[in-house]
Amino acid sequence: MSAAEPSYLYKLIPSTAPVREPLPDQLPVSEIDLKSGFVHLSTALQVPNTLKIFFKDEPLVYVLRIPYGRVARDIRFEDPEGRVCGPRPEEGLFPVSLGNAASITSKINL
Predict the structure, then answer these.
(1) How many CB atoms lie within 10 A of CB 75?
(2) Which end of the chain is more exposed for a tag (fewer CB within 10 A), N or C?
(3) How far apart are CA 40 and CA 63, in angstroms?
(4) Under CATH, which number does the domain 8-105 receive?
(5) pTM above 0.90?
(6) What's the gap between Cα 71 and its chain centre?
(7) Model confidence at 47: pLDDT above 90
(8) Whose CA is closest to 97, among 4, 9, 7?
(9) Half-sphere exposure of 62 toward its Cβ, with a 13 Å CA cutoff?
(10) What is the DSSP letter of 84?
């Protein structure tokens, strides 16, 4: 990552995802994160286009703000391949979790 680390990372969750009652103490692993083997996160700069590209049909999206310091040691920044949404070079590197998705979601307390 560059010298300027983000203060926060963001996890976008569609409102159509089932909401458990009562709310869990930690974020459950989403189906897409399980399939990918990592947690999909965004920086503040990336959130608007991620919403437009991947959540355009969602009526409402929850945006979880995660303090970067809480997960920094489990995050690396990668250049997106652009196979799904095309290149997005103006948005910089994307944060992805190291290890399995469950390990990082256990650090994201709701």
Answers:
(1) 20
(2) C
(3) 12
(4) 3.20.170.20
(5) no
(6) 12
(7) yes
(8) 9
(9) 11
(10) T
Task: Tell me how many helices (H) and strands (E) the chain has.
Answer: 4, 4
Higher pLDDT, 38 or 72: 72
How remote is the C-alpha of 22 from its chain's centroid?
23
Number of Cβ within 10 Å of residue 91's Cβ equals 16
Pair of tokens at residue 44: 């503040």
Within 8 A by CB and 6+ apart from 62, the residues are 12, 13, 14, 15
Taking all residues of the chain, what is their mean pLDDT, rounded to a whole number? 78
Within 13 Å and on the Cβ side, how many CA atoms surround 104?
28
Report the C-alpha gap between 80 and 94 in whole angstroms: 7
**Coil, strand or helix: which one is 30?**
coil
The residue type at 42:
S
